[in-house]
Amino acid sequence: MSLTVRNVEAADTTRVAELMHKYIVGFYKNPWPGDDKIDELIQTLLEKEEGIQFVAEKDGELVGFATIYFSHSTMKAQKITVMNDFFVLEPYRDTQVESLLFLTCQKYTQDMGFSHMTWITSTENKRAQQFFDQVGAVQGNWLSYSIV
User: Fold this and answer.
1) CB neighbourhood size of 54 (10 A)
2) Which CATH superfamily is domain 3-134 in?
């Protein structure tokens, strides 16, 4: 059995979109933004200028993905990464797949000279919060808001 975490490649577009559907619609119960918008997002991330996507591949099957966007921290006056998405299929949670995918994001952040990686998760996602606590993450002091 082989496990690889790697950058998304152009040949992965359809399979990554399927994973994103499971994440957006299946896990978070949000409406699907549409195939065209998802394909456009994946293409943007393939350019690696605004962000990057990683996939976890186990025995030839894509079983997880993470999306990191590039931003800046005014407080630190440095570049940061924002891990906007972190999703692993249910059978692979609490396994090496989850750990390796997260560590790849963390290592990329460090190797590329970003000051730190930040992310948010749903207040109801207790399982993810437990994982983030286990990897040594520290919960921030900021509340998250959004507006449409």
Assistant:
1) 23
2) Gcn5-related N-acetyltransferase (GNAT) (3.40.630.30)
Task: Render pLDDT for 73-92 as a digit per residue (tens, 0 to 9).
Answer: 999 999 999 999 999 999 99
Q: Which two tokens stand for residue 141?
A: 């002091």
Cα gap 49→59, rounded to integer Å? 30
SS (H, E, C) 118-146: ECCCCCCCHHHHHHHHHCCCCCCCCCCCC
User: Under a CB-based contact definition with an 8 Å cutoff, are residues 57 and 63 in contact?
Assistant: yes
- Answer positive or negative: Cα dihedral of 105, 83, 14, 44: negative
15-45 tens-digit pLDDT: 999 999 999 999 999 999 999 999 999 999 9
Delimit the domains of the chain by residue range: 3-134
Stated pTM of the model: 0.91
Strands 78-88 and 117-118, how do they pair?
parallel
